[in-house]
Amino acid sequence: MRSNDWLAHQLPVGMTEDDFFMRFVTIFQRISDTVLDQIDSLPYMFDPSVAPDNMVRAMAEWIGVDWVDSSLDDRLQRKIVMKYSELIQWRGTSQGLVLLLELLSGGPVEVSDTGGVFPEGESSNTPPHVRLDLASAGWNRTADLIRIVRSELPATVTFDLWVAGDKIWPVDQPQTVA
Question: What is the reported pTM?
Answer without folding.
Answer: 0.73
